[in-house]
Amino acid sequence: MAVEFKDYYRSLGLPKTASDDEIKKAFRNLARKHHPDVAKDKAAAEEKFKEINEAYEVLGDPDKRRKYDTLGANWKQGFAPPPEGDMGGGFRSTRPGDAEEFHFHGTGFSDFFEQFFGGQDIHRGFSGFGRGGGYGGAATGPQRGGDVESDLLVTLQEALNGSVRQLSLRRIDGQSGQARTETFRVRIPAGATEGRLIRVPGKGGEGLNGGSPGDLFLRVRLARHPDFRVRGNDLYHDLLLAPWEAVLGTTVSVPTLEGQVSLRIPPGAQAGQQFRVRDRGLPGEGGVRGHLLAVINLATPERVSDAERANWEALARNSTFNPRRTP
Amino acid sequence: MSGGEQPIERQSYTLEAVLEITGVERDTVLRYCEIGVLAIGPDEIDDADFTDESIRRLLLAEHLRCQHGLNLVGVRMIMELTAEVERLREELRFQLES
To answer: A175 and A67 in one domain?
Structure first.
């Protein structure tokens, strides 16, 4: 099946020469604008959010970006997808004596991404594993269909509250070429953190000789969020402070998945220091939620007025502080 | 603070259900528990809650053993490496976003 090339630079509105910082900024701006939780037209925003997430997933990772840039250059010269068994083939059942091709819609990733970048996950190397042949019966008896794995893009809100997603699966029989599409719903449980598996019984490869079908295993891939990074069940938020806020202390508003909360920063806060907002992370084992960690980053003004400059100069003259002084 | 009591939802299976779903023998499951392919103590398998991840690991282990001829040590090694790669990917992703 022909795979449509995705122009990820266009998705983020950037030239191919964009720096890593420009890519990050463009993603954050667009993700805030099109985040399904804030947009008015939720359906359109969701599609756009997935598109920019996928684009950032590739362009935000130097290795994937390099591969994509090479691929893009070759694509226009009639680049052919890699053969089965190469990096991309994550959607074929390895049922003995047959080959079945799977295309999912609703996982949050395009066929293009799955074909060229999904394969970088080592577990994809085992896609299509199953019980047919070699275990539990002769080749002429009923053979259960192979199991199939795919990634499922899950937003942090979905991971927090759980949701139901409609997926459609298009199967193409490797021998007859006949295609069949079926639609089904998958429940994403609350607490579906990165890498978590969701098993969908009977949606894998067809069985042989009356054997039952295999299963579909969906692996949760958390969508990137403009305000949070995820580690386990904890969320990290980079909190920018002005130098005087860090020195004197302040109270700031920080975002959580459930709205803003006030956070008191004590005097003398240091860059890299973390302040914890309890129980505002993602659900974890044992019913306990992770935390939100606000990580202090100090920002300085790029330009200052004459009056501001005079204040900084006065501070420089009068301060005894030297960050490079050894004790 | 709200939300601290929110229970995590996790599909769990009994040993009997796992044996039926995977077609793997009880003794084989026990062996996988003994060598650490499944994070369940060998003495606990009769009462353990198996997850979707347990099922996937069992199927993958059997696939490696039966289709690719790996012995149990090889199976465990591949599973450990896979888990390590997954962990490193997650960490790299976290670092790249900072």
So the answer is: yes
